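User: Can you predict the 3D structure for this chain?
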Amino acid sequence: MATNSFIFYSVKIAGELIFDVLYFPLWWYSRGLVNIIVGVKDFLVNKQKSLALLVWIKNIFKPMYAQYDWQGMLISFFMRVIQIIFRSMTMLVWLVLSLAAIIFWTTLPALILYEITFQFI
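Assistant: Here is the predicted structure, written as structure tokens:
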């Protein structure tokens, strides 16, 4: 009885292992890629919220500290422009890194296969 169970479960495990190996490329480029893209989108949305870039752009012509004289408005405008420039550059860096992660995700299996075949040659 024990050998029948052993054979049954060995065949079942081997079948699942073969299915997982064959299903892996399909998952990597379908569901896995969608998960990565959704994760990157959420990451970029959270970075935009933490940088508050849209808030700075929306309030560019409003004076800071309620100083409505022309000096206060001029200083506020240029300070906000500088903040928008630096925050936009920071957001651009996060965007480039996120796109690099997606590109890395899509090219990693091909790179691994290339390296494996390179070792055999």
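The longest helix spans residues 70-120. Residues 2-120 form one domain.
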